[in-house]
Amino acid sequence: MTSITAQPSQSSLVNTVIQKRLIGKAFFIAIGLFAAYRIGIALQANPTLFLQQVINGLQLGFVYALIALGYTMVYGIVRLINFAHGDVFMVGAFISFFAITRLELHLWLGKIAPNLPQGLIIGVGSITVVMLSMIVCAWLAFVIERIAYKPLRNAPRIAALITAIGVSFFLEYFGALQFVFSPNFITYKRPFGVVTWSLGADRLNALQPGIAPPAGSVIFSNIAVIIIVASLFLLLALNFIVQKTRIGKAMRAAAYDKPTARLMGINVNGIISITFAIGASLAGAGGMLYAIAYPSIVFWMGLIPGLKAFVAAVLGGIGSIPGALVGSLIMGQAEVLSAGYISTPMRDAIAFTILIIVLLVKPTGLFGEPSREKA
Amino acid sequence: MFKKISKSSLFFFGGTLLLFLVVQVLINNGTLNVFWLTLLRIGAVMAIVSLGLNLIYGFNGQFSLGQWGFYAIGAYAAADITWYWHNQKSAIALVVVLLATLLVGAAILILRRLFARVRGLDAMSAFALYLLVVVALVYLAVVISQPVAPVVSSLLLALPPAVSMQVVFVLAVLLAGLVAAEISFIFGLPVLTLGSDYFGIATLGFTIIVKVLLDNSDTMFGFAEMKGARGMIGIPKLTTWFWVFFFLILVVIITRNLLHSSYGRAIVSVREDEIAAKAMGIDIAHYKTLTFVLGSYFAGLAGALYAHINGFLHPNEFNFIKSFDPMIIVVFGGLGSVTGTIGASFAWALILEGFLRLWLPQGFETWRFVVYPLLLLLVMLLKPKGLFGDFEMPFLRQILPSLAPTAVARHEEVERATLTSSSGTVSYPGDRAENLPAQETNE
Question: Does the beta-carbon distance from B373 to A167 stay under 8 Å?
Answer without folding.
Answer: yes
